[in-house]
Amino acid sequence: MEAAPRIPLLHITDLYHPPQDPDDQFDLATLLALPEFDLKAVLLDVTRKFLTPAPAGWDLARDPGVVTVAQTNALRGTCIPVAIGPRDPLSSLTDDVSDRPPSEQAAVKLLLATLRESAEPVTVSIVGSARILAAAFLQAPEVVKAGVDAVWVNAGSTVGGELEWNVMLDPFAYQVLWQSGLPVRWFPCATENGAFDPEPERGTHWLTTHAELLVGLPARWRGWFVYGLSGSARGDFIRAMDELGAGPVWDNLQASRRSMWSTASLVMAAGRGLARTESGWKFVSQAEIASHSLEVWPWRLDPITARCQADFHVDWQETDAPSVYALFGRRPGSDYGRAMVEALNALLVERLD
After folding, report:
1. Residues 6+ apart with CB under 8 A from 215
2. Is residue 2 part of a domain?
3. What confidence tens digit (pLDDT) does each residue in 48-95 have?
4. Domains contained in the chain, number
5. CATH no. for residue 37?
6. Domain range holding 121?
7. Mean of per-residue pLDDT scores for the chain
8. Is this prediction's pTM over 0.90?
């Protein structure tokens, strides 16, 4: 029997070392563990204030997460390209960043090259700002329109008020995305009670600990997580993965709490659902759900009309008409988080070898 064709994917992530928000490393691991994806490139969405130490920057100096991706290539024997994007937000709705230094152009160029070379439309996942994709669209709108299947974006809020974190990183880029006409699968990071409420129907947030997520992983993958999560400064970053999966640093990381937002978008983009199996909650294919009549935690994408306002909030309504926009929804309730913990741990243990 022929294997199903894999989904070509470009992943845009604000992955840093040391991490600014460690959920980005878990998101990358999730993509690597989902065999449905053909990961074409990792595009690093960076912002100057996180690359610069205080008082000029946010807190401490970070590097774009190039080493984190290089380590996965060493672990898996792959050659996934990685490139760094522009450091500063778009200055307007027409700023295509073409006047930025060459060192800030690589991610935009790689995105456009990947779309031009792909034999089929490419899925784009965004777990940071929309800057790289927006700049590429402004430089070559026809290439992006023809080459992108859908954009799975984790950002924004379903209500007004303060700008959500990923939108705040580059408000104009967020607005460019919504005005582009590209198909958008919207996974808001905040709802009516903020970004950390585990209950709402549109909410993507869930909370766990490193101990729950990482139990049972192979030793070298534990070392990969420890290297990134601890912000290790070891220069022997390949050998370090053999040594860091046990010991004091590993032990100290176990109790740390981890907020997660983007997992559902990545799993749904792969065509999987969240289902209870004989061995607990797992992310399984729709075919397996149907053939085994598995209990599911219902989630869906609802067609919506959407318009990004001048204040960078999205005005949306559900619609019965065909639409290029769709909004995440799920059965409400905080037990969703427990199911997600079990399912993500099972995926990582089974697929990261």
Report:
1. 345, 349
2. no
3. 999 999 999 999 999 999 999 999 999 999 999 999 999 999 999 999
4. 1
5. 3.90.245.10
6. 7-351
7. 97
8. yes
